[in-house]
Each structure stands twice: as C-alpha cells, then as structure tokens.
Design goal:
Blueprint: H1 28-32, H2 39-51, E1 56-59, H3 62-73, E2 85-89, E3 93-103, H4 108-127, E4 130-142
Parallel strand pairs: 3-4
Antiparallel strand pairs: 1-3, 2-3
Helix pairs in contact: 2-4
C-alpha cells in the first residue's frame, strides 16, 4: 500500500474554516430555540445576592437611594431589587457594577470579596452566563444610630 505524500494531504489550520461534515452536534437548547436573558433579570439577581451579604446596608448612590425612597412612598410603588446595579449582558457573558453602602466597622475588602462571590455564584447558577467582572463602588458608610425617622417632620 502506498503512503500518501505530503503534497496530496491538506492539514487544516485552526483559523481555516472546515469543509465537509462537522462532528459537532448542536446542543438541545439550540435544537429547540434560543434563550435570551434581559438586563433587568441579571440586575435583580445581582441586587438580591449583594443584599444577602452581612455588612451591606443598602445598594445605590445617594441620589439613587433618594429617588428610590420617594418611589417607594408612592401608592403602589415598591422597592426595586436592581437598585444600585448596572449590568451589561451578552450572549454568554455579563459584567456587573454595584454601588453599595456598608456598615461601619466591617472590613470593606472582606465585604467586597463576599459580595463578589455571592453575586457571581447566584448569577452564574441562575442564568448560565459567565460573570467576567463585578465592580464595586462603596459610596457611603452607614453609622450606628444613623437611622432617619421618616415620620419625623421639621415643619407641621
């Protein structure tokens, strides 16, 4: 039996498109349709996961929290789980930005690491998206006894 010489064989380079029959089979989800996940869904999951971490007092910057508090007071208004969260969602990956207020006396680096772990775990588990980054901006520190009594009015 004669061996084929190198001039008759063509080795495909990795950057070259394959011709002929493909051995890759489509996944079950590709056969039955496409799933898309809205940015708001990822925002809510990330917001809930961040709030679960001990030491997180609130999410959002000062202005965001003020507008949110006013919206919560409107009849029929309710707290938004995605407040203080911005995301970019692609087909397979997502990036998340969080604005947080932390409790006084707790290590911010430890809280940030715990928030990242919890957010990444929750988003990846629930959506199947790869979380490529979680950026955390600490906007404020909540001091003990710094609760504002919303029923107290300066003018009657």
């Amino acid at each position: 039996m004669a061996e084929p010489n190198s001039s008759t064989l063509h080795k495909a380079r990795p950057d070259e498109p394959r011709t002929g029959m493909s051995t890759t089979l489509p996944t079950a989800s590709e056969l039955h349709g496409k799933t898309t996940i809205a940015d708001g869904v990822v925002e809510k999951i990330a917001g809930i996961a961040a709030r679960e971490v001990p030491g997180i007092h609130a999410l959002g910057g000062g202005f965001t929290r003020t507008i949110g508090a006013m919206r919560d007071r409107v009849p029929g208004g309710r707290a938004t789980a995605g407040r203080g969260v911005k995301v970019e969602v692609g087909e397979k990956q997502t990036a998340i930005d969080l604005q947080v207020v932390v409790e006084y006396g707790i290590s911010i680096t430890d809280i940030a690491a715990d928030v990242r772990d919890n957010v990444i775990g929750a988003v990846e588990r629930m959506t199947g998206l790869e979380v490529v980054e979680v950026n955390i901006a600490v906007n404020d520190v909540h001091l003990p006894g710094d609760e504002q009594d919303t029923d107290e009015r300066r003018v009657e």
